[in-house]
UniProtKB/TrEMBL annotation:
Alphabetical list of Pfam families matching this protein: TPR_16 (PF13432), TPR_6 (PF13174)
Entry annotated with the keyword Repeat: yes
Keywords: Repeat, TPR repeat
Gene3D superfamilies for this protein: Tetratricopeptide repeat domain
Record keyword Repeat present: yes
Organism: Thermosulfuriphilus ammonigenes
Name of the molecule in the record: Tetratricopeptide repeat protein
Length: 647
């Protein structure tokens, strides 16, 4: 009897368990339970079993979407995508759509189809703004925009998310960190502090995104609050010891120690960064800083050894090539040029120098770099001269003149003059020496420049100037700088180089200090030429009103013509007319003067006077002015006839 009762109970339990196992709703609950526990394979088996049963649409909807999620989480993206599209097609009004779109966006992002991914993410934000997956979708959308460098759109999205998700600190913290990183990447450092201020109490965000602490410390470091920065960063190290930013923290701690001249602590931090994260950017920068600190002691031992230079040069090259926008490159480039000059010679150093000047014309490290560029340039020049390769030096000079002009090296221009002198090109040599003199050579170079300049002048037959330069070289007396001969010589050189303002100033001073009339007579035409070039018409009027006695008429006519053309081209037509009339008093039938006089009359609206001059020109036999005057008269006749016809 007892055995029969036990068997009956067993049969009832077996039947009940079978019925429970076959219940679709119980199977769905079991799928969800296995999925939530991370047993994806088991959940998928049960889900397939459920989908193989005849079930109603609500149950089919849940099972189909759930299967898609399981497949996606397992990494079977192709199958997941297929099931998701099937589910979305069958149930277009399902409450699962936001989550399904999110999963599809993740799959497309993983496949590199960022356009499709963005399309699904924007659908979520537009049609399901209150969905629980919307913040996650917005974060994923921001990641995509940042990857594609759509920085403005990413910034707007992250700001929108921070404002909308105030009650979800985890989302706010993640969005804030992305935005802080973006501001730093774009160099908008001021925005970092402002964003941290907008986030409200930051303690509530630390557990979700410890990087907030890092950025707080960074702002304190930038503002010079060293103690606060150290406190925040040490707290960050304790809170997120595995963060990839830790190496940056230690590097910045080393920077703070270096800036406060705590060399020992700085070296410890730099060495720790270089040894702990050897493949990181911070490690490379730390090696550069360690060499800098060590270089200060090299001065007592004759500079860095070739072995030390060989070790650090690849590090400097890596910084310049991999991180060209990092501010530290402005410190790296001058050191790199210096060390390359010492190890590889001036040619290679100059190649680097021109690259640096082309890429960073306004670099903060320009002054230090120019010192070593000048050293390289002069060394290369002297190499050419030692081989008597004068053309090689001059070709190099003219090929790189734009960049050489930025160096402003008097020694280079002196050596260029030496090359011209070696080729017996004395006018060019003289200009090169003048340029060297303008750039103010140091006292050790000045005698060489002046001696070579005097030598060239002597070879050109300008003995007085050469004597003055030699006298200045021998006596080294400052008063010779203001002597009339030296001033006149410098004035002539400035005039030849078309620096008219300077030439006029020097020649005026020379004339005021010249005692004899003959010297003033020689300088007056040069002063007129300089004043014409400077387009100072008031000064020209004064000069032509006081023409020296016995001044050659032919030379005066040339000066008047040049002054008239300069005035006419500058729009000073009344002055030009006055000049041409003065010239015509000296040579009344000069066709060129008459032609320009007529042009002045016409531009001043004095048509009758212009026509009278053209009539006079047309009666002369001088070509081409006769034909031009006849053409102008004919054109005037046609214009007058047209006016009468209109009237």
């Amino acid at each position: 009897m007892l055995k029969s009762l036990s068997f009956a109970v067993f049969c009832l339990l077996f039947l009940a368990s079978g019925a429970r196992a076959q219940s679709p709703y119980l199977l769905l609950a079991e799928v969800k339970e296995q999925y939530n526990q991370g047993h994806l394979d088991t959940a998928l088996v049960i889900c397939d079993r459920l989908l193989g049963m005849p079930i109603d649409e609500p149950l089919l909807e849940e099972a189909l979407f759930l299967k898609a999620y399981i497949l996606a989480d397992k990494g079977e993206t192709e199958e997941a995508k297929k099931v998701l599209k099937e589910a979305v097609g069958k149930f277009p009004d399902s409450h699962h759509l936001p989550r399904a779109y999110f999963y599809l966006a993740r799959i497309f992002k993983a496949e590199g189809d960022w356009s499709s991914a963005l399309g699904y993410l924007r659908l979520i934000r537009k049609h399901y703004p209150e969905s629980e997956v919307t913040p996650e979708a917005a974060l994923l959308e921001a990641d995509l925009l940042l990857e594609k460098r759509r920085y403005r759109m990413a910034e707007e999205l992250l700001n929108w998310l921070i404002q909308r998700a105030r009650e979800r600190p985890a989302v706010v913290a993640q969005a804030a960190v992305k935005l802080l990183d973006l501001y730093h990447q774009l160099g908008r450092e001021a925005e970092i502090g402002r964003l941290l201020g907008r986030l409200g109490p930051l303690d509530r965000l630390y557990s979700y995104a410890p990087d907030i602490l890092y950025w707080q410390g960074y702002v304190a470091y930038r503002e010079g609050r060293v103690a606060e920065a150290q406190r925040l960063w040490l707290r960050y190290v304790n809170l997120a010891p595995d963060s990839p930013r830790i190496r940056r923290v230690f590097y910045l701690l080393a920077e703070m120690a270096r800036e406060s001249r705590d060399v020992i602590k700085a070296r410890q931090f730099y060495a720790y960064v270089a040894s702990t994260w050897p493949a990181s950017k911070e490690a490379v920068l730390a090696k550069f800083r360690l060499f800098q600190l060590k270089k200060n002691f090299y001065a007592f031992f004759g500079g860095p050894t070739p072995q030390d230079i060989g070790v650090i040069l690849p590090v400097l090259s890596m910084i310049c090539e991999k991180w060209p926008d990092d501010p530290v490159v402005h410190e790296v480039w001058p050191l790199r040029i210096e060390l390359v000059l010492k190890q590889k010679g001036p040619r290679v150093a100059l190649e680097l120098s021109w690259e640096f000047l082309s890429r960073y014309p306004e670099s903060p490290g320009l002054k230090e770099a120019l010192f070593w560029i000048n050293r390289s340039l002069v060394a290369y020049d002297r190499l050419f001269l030692s081989q008597k390769n004068y053309l090689g030096l001059l070709n190099y000079h003219w090929e790189h003149l734009d960049l050489i002009s930025k160096v402003r090296s008097p020694e280079h221009w002196y050596l260029v003059g030496e090359a011209y002198k070696g080729l017996d090109l004395y006018p060019q040599a003289r200009r090169a020496y003048a340029r060297a003199w303008e750039l103010k050579p140091d006292p050790a170079l000045t005698p060489d420049v002046m001696a070579s300049w005097a030598e060239v002048l002597t070879s050109s037959g300008e003995l007085e100037a050469a004597a003055a330069l030699i006298e200045d070289l021998l006596d080294k007396n400052p008063r010779y700088r203001s002597s009339p001969a030296i001033l006149a010589l410098r004035g002539r050189l400035a005039l030849r180089e078309r620096r008219f303002g300077l030439a006029r100033e020097l020649l005026l001073e020379a004339m005021s200090k010249s005692a004899d009339l003959e010297s003033k007579l020689r300088l007056w035409p040069l002063l007129v030429e300089a004043t014409i070039g400077a387009a100072d018409f008031k000064a020209l009027e004064r000069l032509f009103s006081r023409v020296p006695k016995n001044f050659p008429q032919k030379r005066l006519l040339l000066l008047l013509k040049a002054a008239g053309q300069q005035a006419l081209s500058s729009g000073e037509v009344p002055f030009a007319l006055d000049i041409y009339e003065k010239a015509l008093k000296l040579q009344p039938d000069d066709p060129e003067l008459l032609w320009y006089q007529a042009l002045c009359f016409e531009r001043l609206g004095q048509e009758a006077a212009a026509e009278e001059v053209w009539q006079k020109l047309s009666s002369l036999e001088t070509q081409p002015y006769k034909e031009l005057a006849q053409a102008m008269l004919k054109a005037r006749e046609l214009v007058d006839r047209a006016r009468w016809e209109v009237l």
